[in-house]
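Exercise 7. Predict the joint structure of the components listed below.
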Amino acid sequence: MGQSLQVRETPGRRISLSLSAENVSFRYAPGSPLVVDQVSLRLTDGALTGILGPNGSGKTTLLRLLSGTRRPTAGRVLLDDRVLDRMSRREVAQHIAVVPQETELAFEYSAIEIVLMGRHPHLGLFTVEGPADIEIAQQAMASTGTAPVADRLFHQLSGGEKQRVVIAAALAQSPRLLLLDEPTASLDLGYQLEVSTLLKGLNRDRGVTMAVSTHDLNLAAAICRELILMRDGRVIATGATNDVLTPDNVRRLYDVEADVHVHAETGHLTVVPMRRVPR
Amino acid sequence: MNIRRRLLLVVGAFTIFTGAVMVWAPTVGSTDISLARTFDRSIPWESNVDAQIFFVARLPRVLAGAMVGAALAAAGVVLQALLRNPLATPFTLGVSAGGSLGAMLAVTMNLEFGLLGVTSIPLASFAGSLIATAIVYALAASQRRGLSTSVLLLAGVTLNSFFSALILFVQYLADFTEALRAIRWMMGGLDVAGYAPIVAALPFLLLALAAFAVLPRTLNLLSAGTEAAAAKGINVVSAQRLAFFSASLATGAAVSLGGPIGFIGIIVPHLVRLLIGADHRIVLPASTLFGASFLVLCDLAARTLMAPLEIPVGVVTALIGGPFFLWLLVKRS
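Solution:
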């Protein structure tokens, strides 16, 4: 059943997307330092973009600004030429979905209940999910491989299953843009591969534009077409992965000397950190 | 089973159960009454003892019990979701302590005022609840963005013990009869004086229930945290505000009517969740209904178990609730 649902995915249906940040700055409290400092960028429609940077470089905050859950202190974020701030939360959520690093629930919901929550921005105040919503949720579970655990309780699932259920809930929002904040950070190698393969597949098959923040350079190299490099709240480089992921840039990002070369079998770049260097 | 059918089935079952309890409860008590005589209009009111027992002693109690139980159970559900803490109760945020302090002051200062047939104690209690709500809100909202749930909890718990200290102080200063009356009120009881307090509390309760009606899906999403809820289209700040004020209003109205009756706001939501899962669209209406019947049944036990002696209903709920709460803690860890 999961298969037949997947076949019905038609990439041609995709509506194009334009999301850009113009001179966006943000601080969490008045007087505190800028966490995001005059960032301008445009996400390429249909691409899977990686956001790289050391801890505290502003990746998570940038994603929050792009999803509109935080308002920029200065500058603006535009979704299809509309200022994100001026749209209601509900309207933004109809276009943009977010997958957080980790999801902890206060109550025991089943996986399908979590995924159906993704339909929230499309439902009226007192309406419940109809057959169309349920089909969208089932489709999202099928394409994330979570259909078999649909009726299990979320907190009983493994880390990889949880993250895939959360991704399914984001897909159930029928978003044009999916923002993921270190989706593999708390997962072991097997689940990392599982989730990253899933993301690449979803981007390819469903044509959802994605931006993924990550610490994992090799994962970024394997799945991202473009990269945004951030340090100290600023964007220091953007462009195609093969152009941007250079030993020089790795050093500028992390103060680490690294060997970057093309992996013979997979054909994408691999980064091997060599030694720490002074800033 | 889809949500619509589950909702109809579960809410239907709880409605029937609650309805049955409320019809049955006033017919039972320490004195046997004849229903035929009670509703026999040919017997003059003055000489119809059965009707007097039914309409004066029992029916107001059942109605008050249903209202207080519904309000506390529903407020418990809403606050547990708002604070993302399944062990929160309607009394966690200090609202009931404010209400109790108000009632204590009315008792000990012998304030004798009234409004539309409502006596000074429930009025002062309701005013105390409103003041406590305002203080907790002002503290938690002084943060830049929305309500800080951690500040809500800390402020609530602190205010609770502060008001409790004031209550003890007021009781210490009171004379013997006043102190006894005050202590009796603190135990919680549904022995309301006629229908006036019920009618007075009803609009506030209905207002709170109307606010609860728009909250369930929001509460589901808030249980994953404010950031995740915002990303799913929730306006977190206004949702938190609505949840906090409606739950406080329900708690304040309930405490003014029945005193601080404990454990309803935690036993009922947890039993309901154990039975039917976590979806607030079902949990909230089911808990509201079950809260009503649960407290009416507790009050029935309170007035019949040791008849003609009446146990304060707050003691009954605490005797059931204490062990239940501990079982819950052990089960969770």
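Discussion. The two ends of chain A are 55 Å apart (CA to CA).
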